[in-house]
Amino acid sequence: MSNRSNRSTRMKNWHLSAIVVGILLVVGGLYFIFGISKQTDAKNAKCTEKTTGVISDVKQNGSNYVSTIDYKIEDFDKTLTVETKKDLGLGNSIEVCYEPQSWSHLYIEGVSKTGKEDIKFGLVTILAGGVFILMGVMVLRKKKMERGEL
Fold this sequence. Notes:
This protein is an alpha+beta fold. It contains three helices and five strands; from the N terminus they run ααβββββα. It has helices at about 5-10, 15-45, 115-145, and strands at about 50-60, 65-75, 75-85, 95-100, 105. It has a five-stranded antiparallel sheet, with no helix packed on it. It is elongated and about 75 Å long.
């Protein structure tokens, strides 16, 4: 077991760790805003072909809904499962956009992830990083004032 002296020594420079963590969070948030959001929007922009899907199953999963969408691309029957905050309605039709060359990426208006969601996440991450940096800087200033360096 560690005694009080050992714990005090280990926690002596925690403010520097808080500043480093804050900087990493800010950098990560900036990457989400300027990198990942652009990639998501670029992928969605490639989905130029459209087909109509029918919602064949809806199940509630906590506060979310898991919907199964059946659609057809060039005589091939396909199925997609999505999780949404709202009930899409069993039997309703929905427009499914897809990449014409590979069919590898699908976009459904109001359901698929967009770059705006990445920007929101990035802003929250930057805010959290700012709080860590602020806490670390405040403790650092307090320690310097106690030593008479300021």
